[in-house]
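Record minuted for everyone:
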Amino acid sequence: MKREIIITSDGSSTINLPDWNEQYHSKNGSINETYHVFINSGLKLVEADTVSILEIGFGTGLNCFITYLESDKPVDYVGVEAYPVSAEEVEKMNFISVLKAEKESEAFNKIHSVSWEEKHQVTDNFSILKRKQFFEDIDDVEAFNLIYFDAFGARVQPELWTEAIFTKMYNALKPNGILVTYSAKGSVRRAMIAVGFAVERLPGPPGKREMLRAIKK
């Protein structure tokens, strides 16, 4: 499948899949989307002393890197990705310059260069474990405070937005754990509710009217 680097509305890059008309991040701003959906609507709400995060769709590592930049607590980060982005593509991402995070370029490079399937310390307060895994094979139980659900959209991969997948997400969260996603589709909301989540609609990031946040009560 053809893959190309494009620049989104906030000046940050993403990967475009023209055959699907789908992108790794919103064309209305990669960085804006990450802050709105995952940081401000998710990370900032977690009250645990150490935040355990599962990302569904590690992709370019942008959500992970901004979490590293923004968290004021220790973070244990697990990123799941079935088809990792290539090193050549990572090198073409302009996140460091757009975020003005040149002083943290070593951390960004380490996030991407460390081996998969092993836990690594990026800093004393930030660890990462990257798992090459299909989402349907996730079997964690009450392991995470927060899930970033950032899979490709239901339009192109509806099998990733089913009750079966959200049952796994529900099981993976600790009590009162939070799942946030850019999606606001009615079918997604209904699937979340069906497996036990309390779901709320929130204002969406630029270009989207709404997004969803689900809580394991």
The chain is about 25% helix and 30% strand. The first helix runs from residue 30 to 40. The chain has a mean pLDDT of 97. The CA atoms of residues 201 and 212 lie 5 Å apart.
